Amino acid sequence: MATVDSGVETMDPSGSGNGEDEVRRRDFIHIAALSFAGAGAVATVFPLVNQMNPSADVLALASVEVDISAIERGQAIKTSWRKQPIFIRNLTDAEIEEANAVSADDLRDPESLADRTSDGKENWLITLGVCTHLGCVPLGAAQGEVKGEYGGYFCPCHGSHYDTAARIRKGPAPTNLEVPEHEFLTDTVVKIG
Amino acid sequence: MSFPWAKEYTPTTAFGQWMDEKLPIGRLVYNSLGAGYPTPRNLNYMWNFGSLAGIFLVVQIVTGIILAMHYAANADIAFDSVEHIMRDVNGGWMFRYAHANGASFFFIAIYMHIARGLYYGSYKAPREMLWLLGVVIYLLAMATAFMGYVLPWGQMSFWGAKVITGLFEAIPLVGKPIQELLLGGFAPDNAALNRFFSLHYLLPFVMAGVIILHIWALHIPGSNNPTGVNVKGKQDTVPFHPFYTAKDGWALGLFLIFFCLMMFFLPNALGHADNYIPANPLSTPAHIVPEWYFWPWYAILRAFTFDFLFIPAKLLGVLAMFSAILVWFFLPWLDTSPVRSGTYRPKMRIAFWILIVATIILFICGGAPAEEPYVMLSQVAGAYYFAYFLIILPLLSRIEKPLPLPNSITEAVTGKPLEKAS
């Protein structure tokens, strides 16, 4: 402690380095200590952020099974999956025909009805009831609701029209109503998610 | 503020200069935690606990904000929401254990900090305001910790709330209405839980504000030191950075090792198993005690088993418990000895260590059941506790012959006199 007040530079009596330019042994301690503390800080930040991700009880609701035996042709039901509305629609032959009549390539989000339904279950259209514009619930699933100009769904918030395959045809929404991953467990039970 | 030889803050970048003209926050940090704050060169490890307490307040605020994101302050679901944190929330168990044990480590740091101040006379002129603000911070910490312990709404939470608010009932005439006002009911319930949650969230920020005043008040006279002798020249000091930032960092590393040891391997060692039973207003736990950091004061509360004159024992206990801490507010004027450090006060030093022993006895008695010999021990130790502040210190200030003080900090450290010229 010869010159106590002049900082680290003159505090090194070990003779391990003389000039300003040389690497001193003390540099290693500085870098090692700060790296160790830095790695610790990063490791601490991860759980601080990760705690905001969905918790185990939320993830436990990630899939639902729905009994669809009571839905007649031309009817639709609303159910909920991951706290979001789901539309399950039993399409009529006319609606299927109407959907297949347009060329998918001409659409804003090119998809055919077959792309959006399961093989051999072309009449079962299962979509999220969440408009792809800004997240409102479109009308058209319940009896008597406006179905829009294309006979599918109509979002009253900003006027997006979906056709009978729930594809966007007119209005501000960028993509078709999202089809969630789903699987028919039997002819009358479908598992969503 | 600070000493004439303190290094001047000189921003090295154009942006630093621009900021320094508009909002000199870099200058503030430099002058309070950087090379611009000259600090006595002889601070020992007891001087690490102030920064440790501050860092643990930050740990408590960060983990607390996270817990509040997942906790529900409602008497019906509070207990379940804590279990939800423990089982479902990503890393929730870790945050809850960090928060619960962090409170203990905060109090460890703050008790060491207070004991340091008592031994080295850090409460004496010109640092009285620094000391008074410290006592305010401690009182806020006690209130915060108590209300936090109520939030999980287990058996200890509920009965702790009942017993502590019951203290106010001891006040003559207005006691009962005050207790009902505090609880918003006749027993702890939803109203009490909600206001405790609200205040538990608020008070740490009030503490942070008072801590800023505490540090401000510190930087006017500068830190005390183990000799208690004033800084007399440049040689007596070293810049805070890198000397005490490095030393505080080292102490933090050590403290965090013990913290992690408790948090990951003994997370419930300092808690009570009864608090994992949901609150039940119809059944009191067999052995009800507060958290360990309140044990000495709890022992003083229970030491009064007899009425005195016209004052009932219950009120005496409550008054004594609050006085045990409020007496600290008068300490700077009770101890009138001009010598700060206990190192140079042979009699005061002995009395101080007996005080520590008495406080440890109170601590043990506070955690033990209220039966003999603990009640008698509490009475003896409690009597000494008050005697130390009210009789021994004022008396010793007059009759004690202190040892010769070193001429300067530098002389105490190196044995060589301070060179005035340098």
Task: Give your account of this protein's structure.
- The complex is a heterodimer of chains A (193) and B (422).
- By secondary structure, chain A is α+β, with helices and mostly antiparallel strands.
- Chain A has helices at 25-50, 56-59, 93-101, 113-116; strands at 64-67, 76-81, 84-90, 124-128, 151-155, 160-163, 168-170, 182-184, 189-192.
- Chain A has a three-stranded antiparallel β-sheet with strand order 1-9-8, with no helix packed on it. In chain A, strands 2-3-4 form a three-stranded antiparallel β-sheet, with no helix packed on it.
- The model of chain B has no long low-confidence stretch (mean pLDDT 93).
- A two-stranded antiparallel sheet of chain B has the order 1-2.
- Chain B is mainly α and 422 residues long.
- In chain B, helix 6 (128-150) runs antiparallel to helix 9 (190-219).
- Chain B is built from 16 helices and two strands.
- In chain B, 38% of the residues are buried.
- The A-B interface holds A 1, 4-5, 7-8, 33, 37, 47-48, 50-53, 55-58 and B 5, 35, 38, 41, 62, 66, 69-70, 84, 87-92, 94-95, 234-235, 237-239, 242, 249, 414.
**Beta-strand percentage range of chain B:** under 5%
Low-confidence stretches of chain A: 1-17
Q: Numbering strands along the chain, what is their spatial order in the largest sheet of chain B?
A: 1-2
Span between termini of chain B: 21 Å
In which order are the strands of the major sheet of chain A placed? Answer: 1-9-8
Please identify the structural class of chain B as seen in this structure: mainly alpha
Q: What average pLDDT do the residues of chain B reach?
A: 93
Distance between the termini of chain A: 69 Å
Query: Nearest-angstrom radius of gyration of chain A?
Result: 31 Å
The helix fraction of chain B, in percent, is 55-70%
Task: Report the principal-axis shape of chain B.
Answer: globular
**Sheet with the most strands, sense and barrel status of chain B:** 2 strands, antiparallel
Task: List unreliable stretches of 5+ residues of chain B.
Answer: none
